[in-house]
Amino acid sequence: MTEAANPAHMLDRSATRALSMSTIAFTVCFAVWTIFSIIGVRIKDDLGLSDTQFGLLVGMPILTGSLVRMLLGIWTDRLGGRLVYTITMLAAALATFLLTFATTYSQMLIAALGVGLAGGSFAVGVAYVSRFYPASRQGTALGIFGVGNVGAAATKFIAPFVLIAWGWQSAAMIWSGVLAIIAVVFWFMTEDDPVIRHRRKAGGGQARSFLAEFKPLKDVRVWRFSLYYFFAFGAFVALALWLPRYLIGVYGFNIATAGIIGAAYSIPASIFRAYGGILSDRIGARTVLYWTFAVSAVCCAILSIPAADYTVHGIKGPIAFHMTVGPVAFVAVAFVLGFCMSLGKAAVYKHIPVYYPNNVGAVGGLVGMIGGLGGFVLPIVFGALNDLTGIWSNCFMLLFALAGVCLAWMHVAIRRMERSTMSSNSALAQPAE
C-alpha cells in the first residue's frame, strides 16, 4: 500500500516530524532565553551591578517571553504554529545579535526584552504539537516537547567556555546564529497542523471570534493551573538563572564550574519532563502533582537551611557545632528538586488539552505566561532578599512557602470537587417523589 493510500501513516509521519522539529527548536530557543544566566555574571562584574540589578537583568528576557505567550498561543490557534514559530525564532535571533552592540545597563535591559521572545516559543509549540495527537497521547507528546528545557543546561555547559575564550559578545552572537539557522530548517522541515489544513480546505474561515479565544480564562481552574506552573516552571527558570550566581557566592566556584554544577539541576528538570508526560497519561496528572509539590517542599526546606554556628553550654563547657549544606549535598538535593519540577511541568500541561481542547493556545498561553512570570519575578526577589537580609538561602525559603501554597490549594480544590460529585451522585440515587 502506498503512502497516498494510507493517510493515517502520513499523519503519523507528520506528527513525528512536527514533534521532533518543535522539540529541537524549543531547545535552542530555551538556550537563548537563559543565556543571561552565564553572560550576565560577566556583565555584572563589568558594570558593577548589585544583586538586585543582576536579578532584573537576567529576569528581563523571562518577562518578555512570558507576556507574549498568550498572544502567540492565540495567533498559533488562528494562523498555525509553523508560521508563528518561524517568525518568533527569527525575531529572537535578531534581538540576540543586536545585544552584542549594547554597552550600558539600560541598553542591555532593552536588548534583553527582545531576547525574551525566544521564551514565547513554548506556547506556540504546545498549541502546534497538541493538534497532531489524540488526547490519550498528548501528555506524552507535550512531555517530550518540554524536554526542550534542556537548552538551559546546554547554555550552562557551553557558554562559560565560549565566554572565557572569546567574551560574552561572541557567545550571544553564536547563539543568535544557531537560532536563525534552526528557524529556517524548521520552516522547510515541517508542515501546517491538521486544523489549519482543514480550515484552508474549507475556505479559510475562522471558527470563532478573537474575543471568544479568551472566554475560558474566566474559569478559576485555569488560574489554579497557572499557580502550579508558576512553581513548577517559573521556579525552575528562576533557579536556572540564579544558581550560577548562588554557587559562586556560597561555595566560591569559578564561573565554569558553577555552570556545570548548575546544569546538574537543569538537566533532570528538562529531560525527565517526557517521563512526567508518560506518568500523567498512565496514573493521572493529579497524582503526579501531589508528589511534585510534596517532595519539592521537602527539598526546598533542606536547601533553605542557612550555614550557621551553634554553641551548646555543655557540662564541661561550651560545645560548638557548625551546620551547613555542603556542595555535594546541595547538588544531590537540587537534582531531586529538578526531577520533581520536571514531572510537575508535564502534569500541568496534561490538563490543558483535556479540559480546553478548543482553546489550547489561549489557556496554554496564559498558564505559560504566569509560569514564565515566575521566572522573571523570582530572580529579582532573590536578589532583593540577598541585598536586604544577606542570607543566601532565602530563595529556597520562599520556594518552600510557594510549594506549600500550591499543595494546599490543590488539595482543597480536589476535596471540594469530590464532595460535589458525591452530593450529585446521592441526589441521583434518591427515588423520585
Short description:
With 433 residues, this protein is mainly alpha-helical. The protein is built from 19 helices and two strands.
Can you describe this structure?
The chain is mainly alpha-helical and 433 residues long. It has a domain at 13-194 and 208-265 and 352-385: MFS general substrate transporter like domains (Growth Hormone, Chain: A, Up-down Bundle). The chain has 19 helices and two strands. It has helices at 7-33, 36-47, 51-67, 69-79, 81-99, 105-115, 121-130, 135-146, 151-166, 168-189, 194-201, 220-251, 255-266, 268-271, 273-283, 285-303, 327-355, 360-389, 394-429, and strands at residues 308-314, 317-323. A two-stranded antiparallel ribbon has the order 1-2. Strand 1 (308-314) and strand 2 form a beta hairpin. Helix 4 packs antiparallel against helix 5 and helix 13 (255-266) crosses helix 17 (327-355).
CATH class of one domain: Mainly Alpha
CATH structural architecture of one domain: Up-down Bundle
Biggest sheet strand line-up? 1-2
In CATH terms, what is the fold-level topology of one domain? Answer: Growth Hormone, Chain: A
Q: What's the SSE pattern?
A: HHHHHHHHHHHHHHHHEEHHH
The helix content is over 70%
Number of strands: 2
- How widely separated are the two ends? 62 Å
CATH superfamily heading of one domain = MFS general substrate transporter like domains
Radius of gyration: 23 Å
Structural class, from secondary structure content? Answer: mainly alpha
Q: List segments where confidence is low: pLDDT < 50 over at least 5 consecutive residues.
A: 1-10
Residue fraction in strands: under 5%
* Shape assignment: globular
Query: Number of helical segments?
Result: 19
